[in-house]
Design brief:
Layout (H helix, E strand, L loop, with lengths): L4 E5 L6 H15 L6 E5 L2 H11 L4 E5 L16 H6 L4 E4 L2 H7 L3 H13 L3 E6 L3 H5 L3 H12 L5 H4 L3 E4 L13 H18 L2 H6 L1 E5 L4 H8 L6 E4 L6 H10 L2
Bound molecules: 2-phosphoglycolic acid.
The site of 2-phosphoglycolic acid has 13 residues, from β8.
Amino acid sequence: MRKPIVAGNWKMNKTVAEAIELAAAIKRELGDCKDVDIVLCPPFTAIQAVSETITGSHVDLGAQNMHWEKSGAFTGEISAAMLRELYCHYVILGHSERRQYFGETDAIVNKKVKAALAANLKPIVCIGETLEEREAGRTEEVIETQVRGSLADLTPRDLVECILAYEPVWAIGTGKTATPEQAQEVHAFIRGLLRDIADEAVAQSVRIQYGGSMKPANARELMGQPDIDGGLIGGAALEARSFVEIVRGAI
Ligand code: PGA
């Protein structure tokens, strides 16, 4: 059985003081939870403070992005080792906002995935189609290109360290969620791709999160689908109560 994983993607929100307050509230409610992997992904500036706040609990830490090089003249960038030093164990890579606003391609995401794995960080690799692509009947083609490109050259051992996040771009921050059936269909397709890229064992062990307007009211039903193994939560992760409820919906 795959253990559910629910991650909060705080995006460009929360000052250090606000981040501490949110992380402390989540730790109070879920600090002992062993049934779900819980990951908080604050902005870089709050990672250290959140790291200190959640120590000694089962709540884990992730970042929202990183560079693929180890160090050097890359103004404004952060390396995998820098994240590890702050006890990050996960990193979101290839989020659609990174692809859309910062020009990230599958080739770039692939370099980052390899650098994260080399530093012992688990990548949360985001994929998803736009509304235009869905309406043109191109969802599977787009997903296949993203999955194969982002995960190129990975060994089965690498692949099982990855988490995939299916986030239809049209559902992110829009209040429009994919129906459980729509999401399940794409998740099953992604699992089939993993079987094709590697083998059945890899396909059965990689966790695939759903993301895009997940909230307490729809989380349980989405995560109850056979191939949906958790959620990547944006807006609803900015408030302890809704995030905690979503995590409870995964059990
Ligand atoms: P949302 O964002 O939950 O606000 O739709 C999800 C995401 O972008 O990861």
